[in-house]
Amino acid sequence: MTLTTEFLGTFSLTTSASFWGAGGRFWSMSLFVPHNASPNRTYEALLKKLGRFEEAKSLMRKSIPVARRVLGSNNETTLKMRMIYAKALYEDPGATLDDLHEAVTTLEEIERTARRVLGGAHPVVKSIEAVLRNARARACETPSSGSA
Q: What is the Cβ-side half-sphere exposure of residue 104, based on CA atoms within 13 angstroms?
């Protein structure tokens, strides 16, 4: 499977994925997300549909530094991308305690930033809070012997 992401200025994000599916069929999809649309749903849908957590995490690890450089660390899209990365960490069935700790730490950091930049009533802040609750719950239910 190949996942690629490109930033086109500060106005849009293009995501494409290619992979071999069941029965040896080749699938390819491209998604174009304008700057005012929610990449959250796009990435989340792609991640869940493909069930490819490692590739999704790798894609986000490459994309987030670009978003920070192009859009800024406090930009709403950058914050959403970091939230999606944290979700990929804790939703992965093979997540280790280190992954869960990284997810919770990342979410705590972006929650503080989003609250400061966007305000406590902003829908993105509310989403981050909900994801943080889920990550903490997952971390609490995972036995400590599960880390590598």
A: 15
Strands 26-34 and 2-8: unpaired
In a domain, 117, yes or no: yes
| Per-residue pLDDT tens over the stretch 71-113 | 899 999 899 989 989 998 998 888 999 999 999 999 999 999 9
Q: How many residues appear in the chain? A: 148
**Where would I find the beta strands (DSSP E) of the chain?**
2-8, 12-20, 26-34
> What pTM value is reported for the model?
0.68
Q: Which amino acid does the sequence have at 54?
A: E
CATH, residue 56: 1.25.40.10
